[in-house]
Queue: 4 jobs
Job 1
Amino acid sequence: MNKVYLDLQVYEYISNNENILKKIEESKSRNLFYYSVAHVEEVYKSYSGETEEKRGITNKLRNCIINISENGILNPSDSCIIFKRETFDECYMRTVKYDTLETVKERSEYKQDSDKNGYDARNLFEGMTQNSETIYKDVWETKRVKEELKKANENNAKQIQMELAFENNHLLKTLEKHYGKENVLKIKQGLISNAQTKLIPDTFIILKNSFGQLEYVIEQLFFILSKCGFRREKGNKKANSGTYDIEHAIYGTFCDSFITDDSKFADKYKAVCYYLGVPTKIIMWDNFINENY
């Protein structure tokens, strides 16, 4: 059976199309569909921002996720991504208790600042012949991406260690608020340890056994690609959804196939999977439907 991960936009499309929903149901003889805590967090965010006139749309989406997917949720553990036999509502209550909306907003702002100070996207492949079929491989051979990888490997651990040394660091204050002062020291040590992980090719076989390191590396690679101008998104809303995209990309490594309808995200995710040696196949939504996977 093929393990499939659907990003949230695809779920939104399915929940509003009865014919597609039936087709997905029929494909369960070939596919196992999974969702993760990232889906639950996005549903929580949607409920939090849902206006009175739109009440019920998020509930329809929630029900769609539950009906399509396996009876359990992909969760992080100290060692790896695990499939946990729990209900959507059990995970949702934990999400409410450990509200991460402020943290996501902070990461989105960081990404925005990085993109604003980034390179001119038009010059990324300067001096190289572009091929749309191999662009996700070729981007790692560009001068600027190589330079950014080198800088990250040399400076990231030192920079994070310096930032976390300040007691009033905003991230530490946020962590303290959500997880309690007694847990912050352990989390802080984990952040510093993960930042020492090098961003080098073909390391997924090692990274998949350490969720913290996998999360750090995938996030940093996405940030570098975006900063360098590779398939960069624009606007505040895109920056916020882009943070959730990265979370979905991390959990998607658990599955054989990842289905999306966002071409820019798909190209970045393909590039990251290629670089790290992640076997997950990224498939566009239309191809998944029309080619009868």
Job 2
Amino acid sequence: MRPQVDTRVPQVWGLDHLRNNLKREQMLEDRYYEIDRENRILLNKMSDIMKHATYSGDRSRSGPPSLNRDRRKQDLMRITQENRQILGRIQKAQPVYNHVEWEDSYQRSATYLRNSCEYPPTLMKRKGSRTNNLLPLRGRDSTSSLREDGYHGSRIEDMPDSAPGPSGEDLKYVLNQHKRIGQKHYLVEMATDGRTLAISAYDADTKTTLELLVNDKNHRRLYREANGDYNMIADKLRVDGNQLILEMTGPYEGAISPT
């Protein structure tokens, strides 16, 4: 039986238009020509940039590069000014909590409690006795009290022999730094019992100590002005002769002296 399907090579296989895709070759040639043209334009632009430092891609364009340039500059200046104002308000903001007012509130509450109790409230009595005035500052012999009262500053061993120390359990040191007052350097110490502020300045050259006692009212004013930073309070110290003076600014302008 003869096959019914012709499996021989077609007679048109040898024709040129079937072996070569002329349309595809023409499209590739046009694409290569377009790429070559764009490369020449880019090369001319780069050459023009190298020859002219102030080259502009569009020479026919005139006027400012942007119509809203001044507007953007004004917005940027406005935002910068507002940020500066916000930063100033944050830096000048007064603290919400005041430990001096807390202490006063506790004293008032304790007074109300004693007045309302039939018997003395011995179970709620605090350790130590609270006095309105500070006792005289002691010397170096009470190093243990320094540590218990929250002493902050240099080491205890480095303190001079005549440097002041605390006097009781309720006395707390809030500052111990070397400060330059006038033309001399002093070891400035500040201690408070929650009301009165005791300041001492020790001169290592002359082995002398200047002391100043600030009452409760002035202590609160200074605390509010410095936002609780005793380092800023120490910057207001001045020496007049043999007396230590604390200058006050603002609405309470003046000077606090031992006399």
Job 3
Amino acid sequence: MRPTASRAVTRAAACGTLALAVLGGCAGGLQGRGVPPPDGSLALGLAFGDARDPVERALLAGGIAARPAGDDPDAVVAARCPQAPVDGPCRLVFGPNGLYAAQIDVPSTDAEELVARVERWLGPAARGAGPSGVHVGVPRVVAAWERPGWTVAVSHVPADGAAPAAAVLRVEYDEATPPVVAGVPLGRRRADVEASLQGQGATLVSRDGEATAYVGCPQGAPDAISCVVQFNQGRAAAVTELHASPAEDQVALEAWRARAERMAGEIGRAPAEACPDAGPDRVGGDCTATWASSRLLVVVGAHRGAGGRHRGAISVYTTWTYPPLAPASAAGAEEE
């Protein structure tokens, strides 16, 4: 189940603040060699999807020094990747499903040469993926490759204070990569997620022990009137957009069906639908259209709020949940 925008552009924008962390050790120039393309879960000589300990042991066995990244507890900085189209320090990022991303940075002046090196590795790129349409300081994708199971991009990261501008090669293994939805990176630690949303210009509304609410998600639906990021185990577990809803029941239900149809078109398959005969009721439950996979649970719903005789107004919402961090009720949803 893929995010609804270009994967490389969406992830670069959402992880703008996170990507800046790779700066500070740019290679002095491009050097590299021919390397095999991704094969299964293997790329750059690394076993993506493996847990941190075995990956670090494999690096050590190959004579490659590695250390924890002081600015990111989810990352390790290796002296190099075992196999890569360019040399230089290699930042490895781990999540609930193991190693999912590797980054190599070079001086920004070498961006085009970096793209050329990766094209010799993976073939022609989708060039000119363009700016993400968010605030200054967020990486701009220069070129992207979407091979089966993999997302690869070269981004330009603007200078930020003492950090120089850089070109960043990021390689992601889709199966293990926490999704980015509506500009929100799921699976990441709360401080990183909130910093990323702030960098994208999201307007904070409230914050409590379990959730942070914004006026809207930075890359979400234009008509959304709120965006709530829920956290579990200190990481982003779910994102909910509340949409502007008509006051009348029938029109609200039509809006729910229309939004579910649009989502079905984006995902590429029909949802599992459930709705009480008389529509949503605070006792009988919501109307829902649900798509489930091992990477993302999507629900477009219609919910009846409080009101006399259980007849409050119906609101329409969309929720994206990351299964490894899902509450028990969401995690128990049947996969299709």
Job 4
Amino acid sequence: MNAYIDFANFCSYLSSMSNQDFIKCNEVLLNAFNLCFTFDKSEIQKAKKEIKRNFDLWLRTATKNRNGKKNDWNINFPPRPVHKSSHISFSKDLLSSIYMLDGENVKEWAETGCLLVGEKGTELDLIKKLQISKTFIPTKQYRIRSMSDWSTIGDNSTPCTDIIVVDQYLFSQSELEYEINSYSLIEQLCKWAKSTAINIVIFTLKDYKEGDQRQNIPFVTIERQLKQKLSQRIGVEPNITFVILPGQEQHDRTILTNYKMYTSGDSFKYFKDGTNVSLCTHGEWMYISSLHDDDVLQNAQDFIHDLQGIIDNVKGGLMSIRGDRKSFFLNF
């Protein structure tokens, strides 16, 4: 992962060394990111004496024991001025990078909730959004039976451009339960978004067996209802795509966003009965992982590669891909 850092932001970051969160945040920044400074290293010598002293202290640990991560200077990126759609042309790697920027329109871009973008003075808070349950850990295990709703997902969500859901049985339930399961789940993942079109791609089966009958998934209804619900929250309609899984491919239930991955041993349809929420799952655990960990990031990249293979294989099938067919991580 890359971190793009402007001069004003780096000075602000160095001035926060006395903050109780600095040591942990700095460990994550050094161990998880290639640091892409948008200015020349010599500019530090023009800073205040305290900043220069803090930079010398910081540099002692910023050049060793970093698992292959590096510091690059004079990086001319992202193009300026930034704007709220700057990310539209970004590669997958850039969509999982973080941006500590100064200047025109940075706040506007940050407020879209698409990427981890922070103005001067927000550097530590930006890095802390990679935490899980307010701790920098690769993965945390949650007991499903201790959950009563999807707030655990929402509390550990991060800004994102894309939400990719892989679950064969996501809609294999009464339509009355969509509201507290699939719809609520996706809404929690979108909590940072504001006036921007999130790309939602759902890999699932076209029907399911209930008793002796085969029940078709009402994709047209789901798309309409989900767009209406999220439009009220975000301000614009999301892009929704359904990829019909061929048979029992991709058994594991997984959700991937730009910076986090959520996995479950059972389908993401845990709850029922609305006012008196109770479990309708046989699963025991859900896991949340942060892509700032190299192993998690590699798993996420491999996962995207596998999903692209499914898309490439089903493109020719009748109605096998439905909806807007938009994603920054997958090609349709």
